[in-house]
Amino acid sequence: MKKRILSGMRPTGPLHLGHLFGALNNWVKLQEEYDCFFMVADWHALMSEYEAPDQIAKNGREMIKDWIACGIEPEKSVVFLQSAVPEHLELAMVFSVLTPLAWLERCPTYKEQLKELKGRDITTYGFLGYPVLQAADITIYKANNVPVGVDQLPHLELAREIVRRFNSLYKKQVFLEPEPLLTKVPKLLGLDNRKMSKSFGNFIALSEPADTIRKKISQMITDPKRIKLEDKGHPDICNVFSYYGVLTDKAKIDEVRANCEKAKKGCTQCKKELAEIVIEYLRPIREKRERLGDADIDNILKEGNKKAREIASKTIDQVKEIIFK
Ligand code: TRP
Ligand code: SF4
Fold first, then answer.
1. Which of 88, 127, 150, 168 is deepest in the core (most CB within 10 A)?
2. Which domain, by its residues, includes 220?
3. Who lines ligand 1 at CB under 6 A?
4. Do 59 and 126 fall within a single domain?
5. Can you give the pTM of this predicted structure?
């Protein structure tokens, strides 16, 4: 029997290169080895977008198009919408009554998000409970592993604590403690050298038009000490170089390094070439994406939601049986 994994993304905006190199490429590979569940976390999106939730559904459909275009295969993996499986909320309710407030208040991602999402009021009951719902997402499928980036580790640790508390309170090993599957990826910073994030608008979307890609990359910051072409560059402190690092092979990376360190090529040219590499890299994704219509997404979700719900409802029956026996 294959081990099961579950992961999810929030449909709060278009997917970008950070999602691709940080998560999606890894998900695609994991499909061979694991029984995979990939979830559109629309309830989680609502926690920050509740004042204007009108884009969540559309973003969700676009996100699934990106997933499929990048290689997620709905024949192999269960692709589903969180809100189509109401059992997640039932389990989150159960978990919420046994999760001490202090666990949530001390969660580092909570504090970070409060700072990052400044324009919005997320000092809400729901947002504090973000990791509780996430714990339910994972455990309702009894997933063994969760592929996540390091930023999500505190949520996973909370999920494990909640599982331990549930199992010990009710003296039944209903749930497994999910283990993280850490993706070994070099962190791709945003175009302005800050963390790549929707809230900063410093990303290249997977569906970005070629001309916008050229423009965005031409504005990237390079080695600040390299003012003239004759100045020798320091690729290791240059964000443009780190993009070459994830997008190209060793020969190309060595060539870019040499041209930079020996001042053989200027930054403008270096960025121009990078833009074309990004455009070529995204071309097959864009082409596959354009062949997908809304009806395809509806079909994928119909299947996926049904499969997810079958499993989720079994788990919730088991939980209610224990609590309300
Ligand atoms: N919190 C995750 C993120 O922001 C999204 C998410 C929701 C998730 N539920 C999940 C990820 C369950 C993994 C497992 O990226
Ligand atoms: Fe960066 Fe390329 Fe300029 Fe070197 S030549 S500093 S790698 S943009």
1. 88
2. 210-288
3. 6-10, 41, 44, 134, 137-138, 146, 148, 152
4. yes
5. 0.95
